[in-house]
Amino acid sequence: MEVVVLSVPLTAIFHGPTRTTTVHSWPRVKVRPPASSLPIHLFQSASPPIILSRATSKNSSAEVEESDDEIMGKEEEEEGEGYFEDGIELEEEDDVGETYVGDGGEGGGISLCGLSWDNVAVSIAEEVSMSSFDGDLKIFALKTSANQLIQLRIEKLSTKYGSPTLTDIIDFTNAYRARLDEAVTKGAIPHNYSLQVSSPGAERAVRIPEDLERFKDRTMFVKYHTSSESEQSQMEQGIFKLISFDMDSGSCIWGIADVRVNREQGEKSKGRPLNKKQKEWRLQMSFKSLQLVRLY
Known about the structure:
Layout: E1 6-9, E2 20-24, E3 62-65, E4 83-85, E5 109-111, H1 118-133, E6 137-144, E7 149-156, H2 166-185, E8 194-198, E9 220-226, E10 234-246, E11 251-256, H3 260-263, H4 276-280, E12 283-286, E13 290-295
């Protein structure tokens, strides 16, 4: 395996002392459980978020990591599927544990750890969104940690799938960091804070019902409650396509997505296309039954 390392100055992006960007290139590996041993409702994507970039705050080094965007396609010439991060070594927190709505990561929403300056960080991010970007770059998720880390995911409302470009992420990072530094001088934010800004992620949560129209043509992972008169409610999941939804009744209809993980169901399928019965299969449920819907 060959690793390519390239160092270039970042003076065109950051003011002040010269910083160095290191570009790494390596293959990504996806691991999935054997498909044939599981029923169709138990399949879940195991692909990690796609990392494109990292950058740092003052007096720290910067790294940029690039990878092909296999999921979102080429909607934008530069798509910011990654993050900019202050110069600290971190584990990928968003890759640990299960995504859930409001987790402050790919599940979206605000997740605060209870620090005295939590709400200040949220307010500043909202102000930057409106004052510097006219609300087009909006908070998708924000999470604070006890180690003074602020993790922010932004979405671009003017694009079909809400994907910001790499330039968008850089610009928001710089604007947000400048305002945070002002708050530091006033004692409202700790001086040793760290900042990480990213896109929503390739497997971002789909907010119900407001995001259904935007992502109606995308394959989705759906986790939902089932109930009947004779059985208690159970949790099921599957890889589906959205057939239709009705805002008035608060309901939606799903079909089996024509993807490899579904085509490999059963010993006899061996990756063959979906049969007529599978293509015509439908599942109707209420919005309230949906525990989690995210892009697949």
